[in-house]
Each structure stands twice: as structure tokens, then as C-alpha cells.
Amino acid sequence: MSTVGLIGAGKIGSTVARLAVAAGHEVVVSNSRGPETLADLVAELGPSARAGTPAEAAAAGDVVVVTVPLKAYRDIPVAPLAGKVVIDTNNYYPDRDGVIPELEDGSATTSGLLQAHLPDASVVKAFNNIYYRHLGSLARPSGSADRSALAIAGDDAAAKATVTALFDDLGYDTVDAGPLAEGWRFERDLPAYCAIYFAPGTETDDLGLPGAQPTDSEAVTAALAKAERPAG
After folding, report:
1. Stated pTM of the model
2. Nearest to 127 by CA among 149, 110, 150, 109
């Protein structure tokens, strides 16, 4: 059993928390509005979960998931994440985050920004390329014929091994896309982003998105290879 800290408890964060608790981990969830606003989520998750501040979630987690809007990455506490594995779920949406010149010109990546903010942590990019409802519904036990895979990118081999083991617990295989700088390969509007998990012809949900289809490591690897970096 390990503890997963979550900085951000929105759609992805709460889904990861549910998967982690189901896999036997403890979770500490946090958001920018205070622990008291997470009472319903903690009650749903049960005795393996508690709410805290972002600093408390950072300190408690053996692995910490940062799942906040990209524009807020500078608010992530630095000191309690020193020496820790940090999973970054960020995507860049200029309409939400404002225009970030170094992302526009390709001189930086979303996860690279967080790594620069957390110089003593080991950042691994993950969870950013799957719709949260599909993340929850596609989890399967190890060895299942219809098990899906998720991509990761990071510079530290030990950190990536830790995330791979966590993914296995949560119900997913892992495809290593390479160093952190290659994380762009599964960002928005590219072949490995979200639609790879969409099931054609299925009824759409209230957000207009279709149901999920299992997507294995081979399919994720092929999608990553098709990625063409947008011109800066």
C-alpha cells in the first residue's frame, strides 16, 4: 500500500483517486478551495481517503498527481515535493490558461514548465490524453485481454518505473514515450490524444463524447509514432 497525493480534485483527479482507492492505496486529496469543500468526495471514497491542503497532499504522497489548470502550475508547493515522483496531467488550452509564449513557439513543453518549477522532483507526464470517464471505465486487471495502455514521458527511469507500477495497480499497461521533452506526442489534437480511446458509433454522453474502446499498447505506440510536432 502506498499513498497517492492529489493536488487538484477535479474530473481527472477524482477519477484517479477512485481508481487508487479501489486498488488498495490511500489517497490525500486537495484543491485550491480548501479541504472542507472535498467532504463529499472523501465520504464517497471511504476510510482510505482524507482531504488536506495542497502542501499536505504533497507531503503525504509517495506519488503526487498534479492535476490543476496549467495557468496555476506556479502555485504548486515546491519544498514538500523535493525528491518525489510527480505525475503531471496538464494540457495547454490558451483560452483557459492565457497565451504562454514558450509553448506557442515550441521552446518548452507543458510538463517541462512544471519540472522547471519543481527542480528537485521527478516529473512524469501522464493521464493528460484520456477523457476522465474513459479513464474510469477502461481500467482492467493485469493480464486482461481487453486491457488498455496509457502513455508516459519522463527523464528519470526510476520515476517512470514507479508510475508504471502504479498504472498496473490502477488497471493499465504503460507505453513509454521517452524523455519528458517528448510529452508533446500525446498532447491535444494529436493521434494519441483522447480520440484513440473513443468507440466509433457508440451513443454520446452529455458532453457529446462517445463511449470508450479498449486501446492496447500497440495502438498507443503507433499513435505516438504518427505525431507531428506543431510548427512553433
Report:
1. 0.95
2. 150
